[in-house]
Amino acid sequence: MNVTRAERVLQGLAALGVRACAIAPGARNSPLVAALEVAAGFERYRFFEERSAAFFALGRARALGAPAAVITTSGTAAAECLPAAIEGYYSGVPLVIVTADRPARLRGTGAPQTIEQRGLFQGHAPTVTFETSWPDLPLRERRRPVHINVPFDEPLLERAPAPRRYRAAAVPPRAGFAGDLAALAAFLEQAALPLVLVGALEPADVAPVRRFLKQLGAPVHAEPHSGLREDPELAGLLLRGGDRVLRRIDFDAVLRLGGVPALRLWRDLDRAGPPVFSVSALPRRGMSRGGLLHGTFAAALDALSPTRVAMDLAPLRARDRAFARALDRILEAEPRSEPALVRGLSRLVPPDARVYLGNSLPLREWDLVADRAPNRRVVRASRGANGIDGQVSTFLGLAEPGAENWAVIGDLTALYDLAAPWVVPQLADRRLRIVVVNNRGGRIFGRLFAEPAFVNQHEISFEPWARMWKLDYVRWEAIPAARPDAAASVIEVVPDLEATRRVRAALDALER
């Protein structure tokens, strides 16, 4: 009965469109593991621990544009998937969490490895328990995770599973949009000096957003993972100065397109400021106020014919370009500083690479200082819950075969996910570059709090980490002219802390 149930689970996953499975084997999920071992039609990746497996599956779901599954045993192993479930919920990724469970008679008894798994991810992934019939799961119409709980009784493997081929169902096209299109049109019509903030976009959204921005003619801040930051067709509209320029302009309306922005300005707008309207794939405003239209970008934006904003962009562009020139001079004077190293790194990364930017400083610094030459890069980040956990595993799940894949993360972010490279030998067809910007602590907190405890200062080198996983290792205090040749590398970038402090002080002085 257990093997039959496991085979039914795999049939159900294929019907949902699942193409990749990250498996953390254990005794209780052995029927699922055994059935997958002789199954054809799924990508299979094996892990020894569940948190990395869940974040890796999250990355595969994003890379494939289809649901991906993580399969765990029972007990606390299942609970390790909660951080990935939270990220999947807030970033709209269809992660399928399949947890093996003890039989129903043991629930509440305190039997070994028996916890209450139903509702374990409450609020972030609805639980369905597969005991007698496969549940109805409209997962493909959702942009959220789901939890499938599967009890198995002993004997766990009463027979060997038969080899089977599973064919993943096609993921249907995204639905239309929900919200008041007339309200968005009125919002734009009443704005004399609007600002457009463009956050994370799916590849299919880039072209319709570009068309809309060109029609509207308003100033734009496009974040790195929007796909539009270096777009030559928008060169006359794109602003480079980020918070330091935008906070000094009295915009009378702010339109957000795509994911929630990383700018400090966005958080400040939650409390006060001009009217805000969000157009997002997800049904969340990203703040406590403002209008919202959510769903398919192309359908929403193509339905609008915005009147071109009647505003003179010349003074704003002059201020923005003056800041950009000042920034160039500051970075040239401090080549060992962290922002200057990030700029140099952006020039070294191939123009057609896949780039993953870690939360905290890497995303913000890349946004401010990365080179703006047009390129064909696909830039990603995990901005659902904005956590720094699981970042390396997510990057490895996102990595594309036959491409240069670069992650730029902080040192504490790397320490959060030390087990992630376990899967690297299973990714032999990918070229992987894990860049750890080691500024010896959480320096973003050093600018927010006076207490040293917030920084978590350390003197850890990442060379032993690379050696442990048999990855090539290099240490850079300056960005070289050549890229590493190894198939998989850890690149430790070590900025000069005093040079970085001087750059921060010089940038702060520009605002006074």
Explain this structure to me?
- This protein is α/β, with parallel strands linked by helices and 512 residues long.
- It has three domains: 2-165, 3-Layer(aba) Sandwich (Rossmann fold); 177-315, 3-Layer(aba) Sandwich (Rossmann fold), CATH 3.40.50.1220; 334-510, 3-Layer(aba) Sandwich (Rossmann fold), CATH 3.40.50.970.
- The chain has 18 helices and 20 strands.
- The protein has helices at 2-15, 30-37, 50-64, 76-79, 82-91, 181-189, 203-216, 243-246, 264-269, 297-302, 314-333, 338-348, 361-369, 391-398, 411-416, 443-446, 463-468, 497-510, and strands at 20-23, 39-40, 43-46, 68-72, 95-101, 127-129, 146-151, 164-165, 177-178, 194-198, 220-222, 253-257, 276-280, 291-295, 354-357, 378-380, 404-410, 431-437, 472-476, 488-493.
- The strands form four sheets. The protein has a six-stranded parallel sheet, sandwiched between helices.
- The radius of gyration is 24 Å and the shape is globular.
- The N and C termini lie far apart (72 Å).
- The mean pLDDT is 93.
